[in-house]
Amino acid sequence: MAMKTFYVVQGFTAGPRGRLSPVPAIEVPSAEAALRRAEKIASINGGAIAFSRAGDPGTDDFDDPVVLARFGQVPEEVG
After folding, report:
1. What share of the chain is helix, strand, coil (3-state, %, to 5)?
2. Does residue 50 contact residue 35 with C-beta atoms inside 8 Å?
3. 51 and 19 in contact (C-beta within 8 Å)?
4. Where are the domains of the chain?
5. Using H for helix, E for strand and C for coil, what is the string for 15-31?
6. CB 9 within 8 A of CB 31
7. End-to-end CA distance of the chain
8. 0.85 cut: is pTM over it?
């Protein structure tokens, strides 16, 4: 299978003690869609990151993720 770029949005929500927890990640069709969705999710949940990752799902060979944007509160170790 050929290389493909995946665009993903990962949201985060703050728990009662302020600890950030991930919400389910969402795959979107483009970088622009990832940016729009991440901004919206951050306005609802408190934080989100949009990133892309290129690779070959058939061989499970992927490049490192590329951060497109961070919105709101995102854990420091992410991106």
Report:
1. 20, 45, 35
2. yes
3. no
4. 4-72
5. CCCCCEEECCCEEECCH
6. no
7. 27
8. yes
> Cβ distance 44 to 26 under 8 Å?
no
pLDDT per position as a tens digit, 38-51: 999 999 999 999 99
Give the pLDDT mean for 46-60.
95
What angle (nearest 5°) sits at the alpha carbon of residue 11, between those of residues 6 and 14?
160
Q: Is 12 helix (H, G, I), strand (E, B) or coil?
A: strand
Between the CA of residue 77 and those of 34, 60, 73, what are the distances in Å? Answer: 20, 24, 12
Which has the closest alpha carbon to 5: 53, 66, 47?
53
| Separation of alpha carbons 10 and 37, rounded Å | 10
Closest CA to 1 of 61, 53, 52, 51: 61
